[in-house]
Amino acid sequence: MPLRVAIIGGGIGGLVLAQLLRIRNNPDVLVQVFERDATAEARDQGYYLGLTGETVALLQPTFENLPKLAELLKDSRSTYTAARMVDANHNILVNFPVPAGGCFINRVDLRQALLQGLDVQWNKQFVSYSESLEDGAVHIQFRDGSTATADILVGADGANSPVREQRAPAVRYNDLGVTTIAGVSPLESASPAIRTLVNDGLVRWLGPDGHTVMMFPVFAVKEGQQSQLMWVLSYPGQRADWEGKFSGSGEDVTDEYSESSHARQALMEDCVARTQARFAPDLADIIRATPTEVNLFGPRQIYSTEVAQVRTLLSPPCGRVILLGDAAHATTTHRGLGANTAVADAADLAQSIAGAAGDSLALIQALQQYEKVMVARGIKVIKESVQVTGSIHSSGWSATWIRPAFLRVINVLIRLFV
Ligand SMILES: Cc1cc2nc3c(=O)[nH]c(=O)nc-3n(C[C@H](O)[C@H](O)[C@H](O)COP(=O)(O)OP(=O)(O)OC[C@H]3O[C@@H](n4cnc5c(N)ncnc54)[C@H](O)[C@@H]3O)c2cc1C
Hints:
Bound molecules: flavin-adenine dinucleotide
Distance between the termini: 53 Å
Strand order of the largest sheet: 5-4-12-13-14-11-15
CATH architecture of the domain at 3-44 and 118-173 and 305-391: 3-Layer(bba) Sandwich
Number of helices: 15
Number of strands: 16
Structural class: alpha/beta
Strand content: 15-25%
CATH class of the domain at 3-44 and 118-173 and 305-391: Alpha Beta
């Protein structure tokens, strides 16, 4: 009988794992993906993601099966070559070196491309699992009352993972006290100064009072598409500051794509006022140009799992239930590494499963080895991301004087040595 692998979650990590297992065309492995969304288009995933050159290389083996994905990731209009930090008046503080091959991609397009050739079971919301000593299998329960049986259960179900809740209840996803709102505006709303800054990549403006704005361009790649500018404003804040004011009560505000349908205009005015008071005026012009009904996302809080809690995943080591991506180590978005890390996890896990599929003992050892690598990678990413989140939202004299001086020194060192 083939090894039955049940993947909970048809997000980037789950789909990449399924595709990487599929290309091996291994009759010993049977993959099933269960996703809570009703259809591929059920949820607005209107965000853009930055994928690094390393991630694109990890996806390369799928390109033969997924020509659409290859087309999207290789399109030169989507690739980026720069990442920089500037002050509130567009003065460059640091230009970071960017490895070649990275690109910006729309999440909807990415998901559609990754779905090619997969038979995902939609409308299957995972509720719980039980591990049977009798048959060594994992039995899975879904909200609609149906069940499934697998030899390995992969929790690829994102930051609020119910699989993790059961597998490792100590791992929590904590509010870091930073509020974020994002939007997508027409690129033509950018002034010549901003246009020059964002033309080749991602720019982060560091402003006073812990306010920061990040932007990157999304150039039209399809017929009839308009070139756009993705912006993300974030600042120190609590959910209580905006709940009820900009968001309807009862919405799942911890969900990545929860989108306030209430008081959008007030939210927009608040974003414009905050930006206008702290940054060069042309930044607020871009935010003001956002089509509020379709392209304004948030507000939401920034969360992270804690390093010490992620370590608990290793004791006891995994059996037949294993996590990947945000389910294991969700963190802040400010290093832009979450999706990239989920792909790296998926690539390692695919190799572990495919390499040991026929041998039960070797398989458990391979999964435990994967888990060690995944936890170490997740911890590194959490540390880096939380450190960046703290630094870009800091305020006071150190943010006004020490931070820019420090970044300028880094810039010089990069120019000299990299
Ligand atoms: C605003 C923003 C910008 C970001 N930008 C970047 C970036 O530029 N670069 C980057 O690398 N990362 C970025 N990230 C992070 C990135 O989106 C996540 O790290 C990444 O999506 C994690 O992938 P995943 O597969 O682990 O989880 P997800 O992509 O969250 O997928 C989880 C899937 O599981 C499904 N699911 C959840 N619960 C259940 C259930 N009970 N039953 C069945 N299915 C379930 C969900 O519907 C979803 O489809 C960003 C995140 C945000 C919020």
